[in-house]
Amino acid sequence: MATKELESIRATLANALDLMKAQGAEYAEAQFSTAVDRGVNVRLGKVEGIETSKSMEIGLGMRIGDRSQSVQISSRSVQDLSEAVAKLALSLKLKPENSYNRPADMALLSKVRHNRSLDLVDRSKLSIDAMADQAKQAEAVALSVSGVANSDGASSGYGRYLSVGVDSRGVEFISERTSRSLSVSVIAKDGEEQQVGGEWTSATYASDLLLPDAVGRAAGLEAVRALNAGSAPVQGKYPVVFHPDIGASLLGHFSGAINGKAIREKSSFLTDAMGQRVFAPGISVCDDPHLKRGMKSSRFSGEGLPTEYLVLVENGVLKSWLMALESARRLGLENVPQIRGATNLTIEPGVLTPDQLISDIQDGLYVTSLMGQGVDTVSGSYSRAAKGFWIKNGAIDFSHPVDNVSVSSNLKDMFLNMSVANDLRRLRSSKAVPTLRVEGMSIA
Amino acid sequence: MSDVRSITDRFFFGATGMDPDRVTDIVTSTLRRADGGELFLQRSMSKSASFGDGRLQSAGESLDQGFGFRFISGESVGYAHSQDLSERTIRSLGSSTKEIRKHADTTLGFMTLPSGVTVPRLYAIDNPLLDISDADRIKILEDVNARARSADPRIIQVTAGVSTGWNVITIIRKDGERFDDVRPMSQLYVEVVAEEAGRKKKGMSILSGRMSLSDVFTHNSWQGAVDNAVRKAIVNLGAIPAPAGEMPVVLANGWAAVMLHESVGHGLEGDAARKNASVYANKIGERVASKGVTIIDQGNIPGARGSLHFDDEGNPTKKNILIEDGILQGYMQDSINARLMGVAPTGNGRRESYQHAPIPRMTTTYMAAGEYTPEEIIASVDRGIYAVDFAGGQVDTVSGSYVFAPTEAYLIENGKIVAPVENAILTGNGPRSMQMVDMVGNDLELSLTGSCGKDGQSVSVGVGQPTVKMRGIKVGGTQPS
Fold first, then answer.
1. What are the residues facing B385 on neighbouring strands?
2. ipTM, interface predicted TM-score of the complex
3. CATH class of A128-225
4. Which domains, and CATH codes, for chain B?
5. CA-CA distance, B193 to B149, in Å (whole number)?
6. Is B476 on the interface with A (CB under 8 A)?
């Protein structure tokens, strides 16, 4: 970034720290984040919208004795900052004492305070015209798939993000990253029936995106294949196979369930599961904060602690929680590696190809889309509506789409009865999984 | 509105050093060759406190302000936004929106929009952040926590929160007309976890409205909200597995209308209809629901979460009948989609904040009352589900498919409610389900809560309905029937 911009941010942050110290802060921290985003939407070959944004946010936190308080504001005006700090000091007095949420000790802080080694900034230039062309191309390919009748639009975007955090002990953390994205959504029609199909790709680097043709073809095929969907042949218990993009939601439920706050509040179905088998043997869940070009990579946590590679589940056995410093202190679990949030989380791949993983299923369901919020991470009960294809005699039957099929089980049972294919794409998303197979889910 | 203008003047001009006449000049000159567009100024202030684990978890205030600048050219939109409220940034980012003209292959001429409309006041202009002191807010949460924990020994966790927001906005349109509004919003939520024999169940309750927090408590009792959350969690501890199969479903009055919102409402938004991306596209005048089904979206109900004096483009909100006695009457429109479809805007052009261009959105969407008592409706069911509460739902507006997971539901047998059920999910197709409405109750109730997401924008909405019975809904339970 421009040195001038950084100097101006540092001056604002120093002023904020001074304002908090003047209000009696014994410890103060301030973080300045900026984002620049541009996006183009096209529909039916025409540019429908161009969006430009420049945004910023300042987070302020201060501590007096064992009371602390924080605030976020989106103005850097001197008057708004001093008003915000004055209110912060007033409301701090209302907070109960809490020694657990004091900042991390200096000695524990990460020595590396930037992410330059992680390759998180794509400096290639991308014009609005080039972005529009990519979106148009992806849409054109999607519309060319036989049976696709309409477009819901395509978009291309980039963003550049900078965050500078300082505290009253003279510590400074700085992080910069970029993101690029392309997506398209089209509609297939057959008589009165219409179905939508979409595909997206996002990455830190433009060169890691799927190509527009691949994005368009996937969206078109998804829409056309979903036409004339029926229901599941007979209700009962079947193996269910999740497309990687859909299976990633199961990893999301897992990361919510091992969060320290949920464990502390006993509001997770994994509260008492540390050291126990929670996944099928052979399955590992890992979190890699140092993944080059990873969308959530960072050398340090939000609380300034160093990050390292974590095996959360090893061969099916739960090995680690993820938690904030306050939860760690309350639970008496102050070993540093688990004191952070999830970064680039994966269920590690197995050895079978997706085809091999499915090959022994006589009857089952291949899920390409899930709807509904019937997931309770307190009890683990799981019940959602799925869209996809029936699996017959060891293969996905694309001529037998199904829609509105309810799949239900309990996350505990689903994790214990899971097997995995070898098709993990780590840079696909910050929560990435291979094709997943779960035995014995109720289908109706 | 002169009192309102003194407030918006203070925040947007007094405090920033901007001059209202010069800013209006920037808007009108930047948009000189545009079909339409506007500058949207916003200052959003909020205050919240949350309680959990038996103690205060967080309490604080936040401030977000900025502007959004929109340039409309034919079917295309250039949009730019920033938090920097300065004439310089409005001019430079505003100017960047003109780039859309290079890409738009037509202009359709200047848009004409309603002008000089006065509307009755729907909510107070007082700053709701000054309404209840911080100490009293925390006291309310302590009382909520104490009441929930003492209500039943099986309650093992209570989380609760109060929040109040004040949204100050000014819109300056291409034609120079200025609109000002100050929009309050307050909420109390209570969530409890009950545990018995290793089973854990949640219960949740929310009170909310476009009003101050003390007005929320004048209209409703917080004690009632706590008791309701506790009751739901305890009821669910005794839930049996839901049956699976096709059966009648009775939806309770009030919040269960979230199903109506998702399965019908989204398909009646003008953008989906214009782009032929809705199952309701090109069906005006056709029967799309059973006789007796009338569905309304109304943006001017006093104090309702979805209500606004005018929408985020400056068009006045009103009562729009979408479906009357089963026949489709019209869609919810913002200015752009209304013009492209040759109809008038309906006051449904809304945005989450200055960071987004407005799109057609619901306000308070409800089904009008019918003739049956709720008791008659339940008594008419041999075997089915009575669904009272939902955590929310989802719909695919293109195909009409919807899915809802009730968080409070019961099995009906021989006309009587026999037991609570868990893991019931209701799936179906919105238009088809509306054709299967058998009985509409006489007990219309508007719910006090609701937020809706679309295209990455969340806005506050309301829903409502009387008790409604539908034939042959697919219930996906775990218990084969």
1. B249, B411
2. 0.79
3. alpha beta
4. 2-237 (3.30.2290.10), 240-476 (no CATH)
5. 10
6. yes
